[in-house]
Amino acid sequence: MVNLIRSVNYSHHYAAMAATFCPSLPQHFKPSPIIKFPRSSFSFKVFSSQSSADETPTRVGFLGLGIMGSPMALNLIKAGCDVTVWNRTKSKCDPLIDLGAKYKPSPAEVAASCDVTFAMLADPESALVVACGEDGAASGMSPGKGYVDVSTVDGPTSKLISGQIKETGALFLEAPVSGSKKPAEDGQLIFLTAGDISLYEKVASYLDIMGKSRFYLGDVGNGAAMKLVVNMIMGSMMTSFAEGLLLSEKVGLDPSVVVEVISQGAISAPMFSLKGPSMVQSKYPTAFPLKHQQKDMRLALSLAESVSQSTPIAAAANELYKVAKSHGLSDSDFSAVIEALKVKSKD
Ligand SMILES: NC(=O)c1ccc[n+]([C@@H]2O[C@H](COP(=O)([O-])OP(=O)(O)OC[C@H]3O[C@@H](n4cnc5c(N)ncnc54)[C@H](OP(=O)(O)O)[C@@H]3O)[C@@H](O)[C@H]2O)c1
């Protein structure tokens, strides 16, 4: 029998955020005990069909129009949905407004004017402030509405947001995505959802506009955990790939040929074929910002820590992302982590 073991490991940092952004929480927010799920109650389902149209909410809000949020909202608009947008930097709303989106000046007003509101924010801090801060989405929520957070955050943050949204009588779904800028543009994302299944069913047709598949993973926190496991593996793969490219060059091989050889063998991966050629040219056009990959490594390591799982490869990879950040590469693509190894080898 396989158990999914989660523990809510609330750091002082999150406790402070919780007190600031969600003042209705008890001052001393206590960690929950470890929860174990027997496999029988840990279900996942993959769907590719459309949900029934009469269940589908009609007015859709979208908060956060960065690399991922903009093309996702754009796909909803292109599909004819009634979309209302908000972004901290208002100028990023303008291209979507030109294409027919409505605009509201705060997350609360978006949530109040929509049946369901999606949020695609950078990290736990921004997801929390947009959902639960002053003029946050929770202030505009009420029974009959739904909040779908598609940002990559940790389980404790997701549970905190869920609690605040559900206190208003609204429903909550966490739905981080696997896939990057191009899959977002092409409506080919993979949604890793957990939370209120009735909301999952209501928004299924929207998920199908923005993505190619969707998993329902049970209780809030399971979607976040799934996303962090996937990105932890991806982050380690990228650092290993970077080491291999640099080693090949040092011993006189052509790294472009290494990329080609890898693409034909058992360790081939779309990521290597996509990023390899530009990495060889020391170019890192941003699809997935390095700062977000390091955030995901940090959150994955914290998840591993909470269940005492050893993750030495991910821990080593995380150090390289931190070095890359310290060299000003936060906003470059995460493949720029190779530069951290170049700097190291010059020492
Ligand atoms: N890019 C990818 O390949 C990819 C793939 C899968 C998942 N993800 C995850 O998806 C999320 C978004 O990624 P992205 O690549 O779209 O990132 P991004 O381009 O950096 O966009 C981040 C968004 O968060 C907003 N934001 C940041 N701090 C904020 C704050 N304090 N208050 C309000 N809004 C704030 C930004 O607003 P401004 O415009 O005002 O800065 C922007 O809308 C992240 O959790 C990331 O890990 C990314």
TrEMBL record:
One of its GO terms (molecular function) is NADP binding. GO terms for cellular component: chloroplast. Keywords: NAD, NADP, Oxidoreductase, Stress response. Transmembrane segments: none annotated. The active site is at residue 227. Coiled coil: none annotated. It catalyses: glycolate + NADP(+) = glyoxylate + NADPH + H(+); 4-hydroxybutanoate + NADP(+) = succinate semialdehyde + NADPH + H(+). It comes from the Eukaryota. InterPro entries: 3-OH-isobutyrate_DH-rel_CS (IPR002204), 6-PGluconate_DH-like_C_sf (IPR008927), 6PGD_dom2 (IPR013328), 6PGDH_NADP-bd (IPR006115), HIBADH-like_NADP-bd (IPR029154), HIBADH-related (IPR015815), HIBADH-related_NP60_sf (IPR051265), NAD(P)-bd_dom_sf (IPR036291). The keyword NAD applies. Residues 59-218 form the 6-phosphogluconate dehydrogenase NADP-binding domain. Residues 221-340 form the 3-hydroxyisobutyrate dehydrogenase-like NAD-binding domain. Belongs to the HIBADH-related family. NP60 subfamily. Catalyzes the NADPH-dependent reduction of glyoxylate to glycolate as well as succinic semialdehyde (SSA) to gamma-hydroxybutyrate in vitro. May function in redox homeostasis and play a role in oxidative stress tolerance by detoxifying glyoxylate and SSA generated in glycolate metabolism and GABA metabolism, respectively. PANTHER family: CYTOKINE-LIKE NUCLEAR FACTOR N-PAC, OXIDOREDUCTASE GLYR1-RELATED. This is Glyoxylate/succinic semialdehyde reductase 2, chloroplastic. It comes from Tagetes erecta. The lineage of its organism: Eukaryota, Viridiplantae, Streptophyta, Embryophyta, Tracheophyta.
